[in-house]
Amino acid sequence: MYQMIPLPYDYDALEPYIDTKTVGLHYEKHYGTYLNKLNSLLQKNDYKMEYSKEELVTHLDMFPLGDRDDILYYLGGVLNHELYFYNMNPKKQNQPVGALKSAIEMQYGSYENFKQQFLETAAFLVGSGYTFLVLNDQNKLEIINLSNQDTPYTYGLIPLIAMDIWEHAYYLNYYNERDRYMKNFFEIIDFEYINQLYEKAIQKKS
């Protein structure tokens, strides 16, 4: 079955922007629970690990109709959390680099314009979910909101940035100050990793 990804940093590494307890609970309890429930459903259906997690999103018709919604929900929870955790890094790699930097500047005019639009979009998300930067089928960047554990892969979009806006991602640190959490996410974002995702996605599409 699918395994938990290792965190690329210690639980306390994102302090003061995200506290040690939040990172530990988020990784072990929330992400871990999604993975365990996904694996239980896959074992129940004698799944043979034919696909990567990303590919499995578009092969749900191999499962009984009654299990598909649950599999997609928990699969989305795993994929979204894994991207979110790897989007962050305490090493201050929080300025766009490489091909992604050029794409952001071409499409949004500047990094500051992109960041402002990302945060404005995130502010419109009602309830739980994520704000994503995705690559669409025209190789253009898009900023979108998706509710709960919906994943961009369902819509043929490749996620590059996932900002988790479920309360468990920030409440111990920020209480009801969601906007402050969202702004601070950009203090610990890892654009070197995100650029690698972008270049890989562009290369795969070419």
Structural category is mainly alpha
CA radius of gyration is: 17 Å
Low-confidence stretches: none
Distance between the termini: 32 Å
Order of helices and strands: HHHHHEEEHHH
Number of structural domains? 2
CATH class of the largest domain: Alpha Beta
What does this structure look like?
By secondary structure, the chain is mainly α. It has two domains: 20-86, Fe,Mn superoxide dismutase (SOD) domain (Helix Hairpins, Orthogonal Bundle); 98-205, 3-Layer(bab) Sandwich (minor pseudopilin epsh fold). 50% of the residues lie in helices and 10% in strands. It is built from eight helices and three strands. It has a three-stranded antiparallel sheet with strand order 2-1-3. The longest helix is centred in the N-terminal third of the chain and has 25 residues, at 20-44. It starts with 19 loop residues before the first helix and ends with a helix.
